[in-house]
Amino acid sequence: MTPSRELAALLDVMEALRTPGSGCPWDLEQTFASIAPYTIEEAYEVVDAIERGDLGDLKDELGDLLFQVVFHARMAQEAGHFAFPDVVEAITSKMIRRHPHVFGEAKDLTPAQVNGLWGSIKAQERSLRAQTRAAAGLPPEPEAMGLLGAVPTTLPGLTRAVKLQDKAATVGFDWNDARLVLAKIQEEAREIEEALDAGASKETVAGEVGDLLFAVANLARHVDADPEAALRSTNAKFERRFAHIEARLAAAGRSLAEASLEEMDALWNEAKRFEG
Fold this sequence. Notes:
mainly alpha, Helix Hairpins, 12 helices, 0% strand, globular
């Protein structure tokens, strides 16, 4: 095996890794379920490279994510379900079908019209899938079980909250002013305070915290902010400022354990001033 720019070479590598007797023992014992967490992790690493503006790293991370697709397709092929070319054909067909304004007769559409057309085509696809599943005696898809059924439970919490809220908004269950959402956040914060004052159980307080996070995700949605991206940015900011505290204390020959909270808070504020 030698490195190559051809996709066929990657498929050959995957086949070799999964060949009993000569392949990789770790790769051979994997399943869809065991690989799924790595697939999610690789997708996040792609996002991280984008947010850092590191295009060299992005190239590598996209390769890692592509390998996940190839891995799942190979396992499906071994089980007799489908192979990588079927995955390519499926997504190619879907993109052509959902872009009649590019590949069909619908022309000169605005972005809003394109979005509406996309939703209409997806609804047609769902209807066809439902008919096909019914004819085959299969149970309805999750999305057929209710408006919110199509939102995957495996999404990160904040992302899923936004998707649930978006779905509910399609039938008018939504606020039309971000300030109303802000008021809801304040209400949820008061309920946490009341639960703490009442000595409520950990489970009760955790439930109230969940309500607060859900409301915060809704506020992010109303101001066109991705709550996951916003939180990642704040995490990075926290790391930078805490590193400043560590560096300043180390320069003075002291450890974090030797510093008081007041000292660390002062250095935190110093870091904020340096950031502008």
